[in-house]
Amino acid sequence: MKSALRKTIENPVASFTMQELVSPYFDPNWHFHPHYQLFTVEEGTGTRFIGDNIQPFEPGDTVFLGPNIPHLWRSDPPYFQTHSQLQTKGIVVYFTEDFLGTDFFQRPEMHILQSFFQHAVRGVEIKGRLREQIRESMKQLLKATGFQAILHLLTLLDELAHSEECQAIASLGYVNTHKVSETERMQKVHDYVLDHFQQEIRLDEMASLAGMSASAFCRYFKTRTNRTFSEFVSEVRIGYACKLLMEGKLTITQICYESGFNTISNFNRQFKELTGLTPAQYQKAYR
Known about the structure:
Jelly Rolls, 2 domains, 9 strands, globular, transcription, HTH_AraC
């Protein structure tokens, strides 16, 4: 799989880029880029990685990301199967802070937007009624051109900046410490875990895949992700379990083993540590 940690996005005929994405699955490469990004999922399910945060995603998921925060919307395994009839759809907007000039957002009238941009370094999830408003505005933005497109985008950003229905995604103090030269190594780690989390994952095998000793890999992973490797694997498994609980097609015991846990007691303990709820409470709250 091609690694693409730093992604280049340019529009030669406009000051910002907007796209409707339609494909069998979302871009499977974990990456970052120097643009602000507004993205909403129209179709598709899977696991979302933003900074040091891992969450399941489904249609409606809408976020605003600051520059250079690593991210990935990893579609569920069925989307990658040969002859799959599934597809993903999304709308994305990319722009740089200077897309209207080097000091446009530094002017006094832009103070609230500038503050919002600063909060976006951790990524922002859009919630509640605002989410549907923003999704509808993004659909309208796809149809806009010229000055009307810029005006529409600024109005959309102003709505976000004034809303209280935005929630930070990455942890407080999160900083991207990844280097472009580490692309291949971290891509291998992500791909392997996402492909094998339902099975036993051995630390020595992972370290070997990364070309490091077990102790060196543990230090490396902790430094780069603000979590241990075992915590990362557990979060991927819990994220998948959350999705299965929301679907409501399997029992909690079935979900435990389907998510890669060996015992129901360990599953319950780790689930509550991460979500603050037992699996049964989480399912009841969602429904």
